[in-house]
Specification:
Elements: H1 3-9, H2 12-36, H3 41-64, E1 65-68, E2 71-74, H4 85-112, E3 140-143, E4 147-148, H5 156-170, E5 177-178, H6 181-184, H7 194-201, E6 205-214, E7 217-226, E8 231-241, H8 245-260, H9 280-293, H10 298-314, H11 319-332, H12 341-358, H13 363-375, H14 379-392, H15 397-409, H16 413-426, H17 431-443, H18 447-460, H19 465-478, H20 481-495, H21 502-510, H22 516-524, H23 545-551, H24 555-566, H25 572-578, H26 589-597, H27 605-609
Parallel strand pairs: 3-5, 3-6, 4-6
Antiparallel strand pairs: 1-2, 6-7, 7-8
């Protein structure tokens, strides 16, 4: 008998065929199961390796051993006239046939229901309500900063700007949850897997691409990825003249809408542009300005203002450049003292109104106006302006953040928290959103949660002074003086080395090692916003000073400070009054009068005083 005949007699071929078909079925079923439970890739790889090794073992066993009525025996111990290989062959044929039927059924099922075994349905998936990770939500997307493929590294702002403009278009669609620029751009230049980025940003879809600008020509490549499985749903390369850059942005947005089966909102009409100008040089300046505005430093904001002004000279009807000016002036008073605060607000109001006059659908302009009205204590107007900004751009994280703080001083703490949670969901890697979220939790008396939220911020930005300060005050309130001292030390190192003794002196007073009254008088005499003054040794924000005075037992000094501060226009006096640490003075007639004067609602009065004033 030839070797080939012997292989047939010993059923080696039948065993191999039955094993291969059965292994294919096992691998297909396992793939579906592993995908549904989000198993790591190595689990499937390990299973395939085991199945491959199993094939070798099965073939060797079928050659060397035989199944007999008495059990498995070595083939050499079984006489040929006693062999039952023919009976075993029939059993193997039945197994092979059953496996083949299973293969056929699986192929038919995959053909009839492709979405169940390739990419999960993009339209009918239900977002998880119990998880921070929204990868199951098909209508959530992050636009990563497009790579600059130009020879000139100075064109980085251009590729960033293209990404941001696409993001802005997408953010106008109510059905689509779009991660904020702050968070999505935080991954710039980092070699991180798209799946991990999507998980960090609570999104299902990721748009990435590249930009090559050369002379008056531009090449843009974009691709949409379903991060739940790594599938590339769509990709396109555009080779156009630079003047067509606006049309490309809309084309990309339309393609994403087609893939997600939603109608995109905010697309331009023929002849219009995304940015509101067809002047390429003005648009170039605008993109540079927005990149600087995002950085929020004093120098960067003044540079952004200069660029926006140049853009409006080139195109006097460039509405988004006016919105950029409005946004810049709305916040620059908190970073710079080059001009009076009132003048910054006047300019913000002027440019916002100009932008709205040119285009009443500008969400940034309404958001800038909200900061002006809030500073003027026109609370209802502020809320309406922020609601309008959100209606125009449903994924406007900054508008949700600002609305959260205005709801807080209106005494609507639960609604404030909801708005702030949504801001954090849209912009999970923003330091200022996280810190403001912590402030709302602090106002609710949820000290542990407020600390935890700020710890998340510090994990990303270890030197973020706002959260260092929040945690220091929380630790003081809880009596954790060593932990508070560590935060004060780091605050001084980060923002003002001259304040290095401040934390130690305060803690010494609180622990009876220094004169409380003397230390309290020092705090009570501090000028408002002295933490901005480089000649001052104070690093603590003004809205925490009344709380510190109450901690030191100087209730009247705390009220004195609040009353002097209340004559100034602004909102921080209201933040100071909303913290539950001021409960010891909350029922005082002076405190009640102050609450009315700054046009806020005290959310803690009924709890502490038993009735509304």
């Amino acid at each position: 008998m030839s070797f080939f005949d012997e292989l047939k007699r010993r059923n080696v071929f039948r065993v191999g065929l039955a094993y291969l078909i059965s292994a294919w079925v096992v691998a297909q079923v396992a793939s579906l199961v592993f995908d549904s439970i989000k198993a790591p890739d190595w689990v499937m790889q390990a299973l395939l390796l085991l199945l491959a090794l199993g094939f070798i073992v099965a073939v060797i066993i079928s050659w060397a051993y035989e199944l007999t009525p008495e059990g498995i025996k070595k083939e050499q111990d079984v006489l040929h006239d006693e062999s039952i290989t023919n009976i075993t062959a029939k059993k193997l044929d039945v197994i092979t046939l059953a496996a083949a039927i299973a293969v056929l059924a699986l192929i038919v099922w995959q053909h009839l229901y492709p979405a169940a075994n390739t990419a999960p349905s993009l339209v009918n998936s239900t977002p998880s309500s119990n998880s921070q990770n929204d990868k199951s939500n098909p209508l959530s997307i992050a636009v990563l900063p497009f790579s600059n493929m130009s020879n000139d590294a100075a064109n980085e702002y251009f590729s960033d700007g293209i990404s941001e403009e696409i993001l802005n278009v997408l953010a106008r669609t109510p059905e689509l949850q779009v991660a904020a620029r702050t968070s999505s751009f935080s991954f710039k230049g980092k070699a991180i897997d798209v799946t991990d980025i999507a998980q960090a940003l609570n999104v299902r879809m990721v748009l990435e691409g590249s930009v090559r600008k050369q002379g008056d020509k531009v090449r843009i490549t974009a691709q949409l990825i379903d991060a739940s499985n790594g599938f590339h749903l769509w990709s396109e390369t555009y080779d156009r003249q630079l003047i067509d850059i606006f049309a490309i942005q809309d084309d990309i947005a339309k393609a994403i809408g087609a893939q997600l089966k939603i109608k995109m909102t905010g697309l331009t009409e023929p002849g219009d542009t995304v940015a509101g100008t067809r002047n390429i040089q003005a648009y170039d300046l605008y993109l540079q300005g927005m990149g600087l505005w995002q950085q929020r430093g004093e120098t960067e904001l003044w540079q952004a203002i200069a660029l926006f002004e140049q853009a409006t000279v080139l195109d006097p009807d460039f509405v988004q450049a006016y919105s950029g000016l409005a946004l810049s002036y709305a916040v620059i008073g908190y970073f710079s003292t080059q001009i009076p605060f009132q003048e910054t607000m006047d300019r913000a109001e002027n440019f916002a109104q100009l932008a709205i006059a040119l285009d009443p659908t500008q969400p940034e302009a309404y958001a800038a106006l909200s900061q002006v009205s809030d500073w003027q204590r026109r609370r209802v107007t502020t809320n309406a302006l922020l609601n309008r900004a959100i209606a125009l751009r449903p994924s406007f994280a900054t508008a949700y953040q600002w609305r959260g703080t205005i709801l807080m001083i209106q005494g609507k703490l639960k609604e404030a928290l909801t708005s702030m949670e949504h801001a954090s969901k849209l912009d999970p890697r923003s330091g200022i959103v996280g810190e403001n979220h912590s402030i709302v939790l602090l106002a609710m008396g949820r000290y542990a949660d407020a600390k935890a939220r700020c710890m998340q911020v510090l994990a990303l930005f270890p030197d973020f002074w706002g959260c260092l300060e929040d945690i220091a005050l929380i630790e003081l309130q809880l009596g954790n003086f060593d932990a508070a001292q560590r935060m004060f030390d780091k605050m001084a190192k980060v923002i003002k080395p001259s304040a290095s003794k401040q934390g130690r002196e305060l803690i010494a007073a609180l622990t009876g090692k220094a004169d409380k009254q003397q230390v309290a008088k020092g705090y009570a005499s501090l000028a408002f916003d002295s933490h901005f003054d480089p000649s001052s040794d104070n690093a603590i924000t003004s809205y925490f000073i009344p709380t510190i005075l109450v901690m030191l037992g100087e209730f009247q000094l705390s009220l004195d400070y609040l009353e002097r501060w209340s004559v100034e226009e602004g909102t921080e006096q209201s933040w100071a009054a909303v913290f539950p640490m001021l409960d010891p003075v909350r029922c005082e007639p002076r405190f009640i009068a102050l609450v009315k004067k700054v046009k806020m609602h005290d959310p803690h009065f009924a709890r502490v005083c038993g009735e509304q004033p």
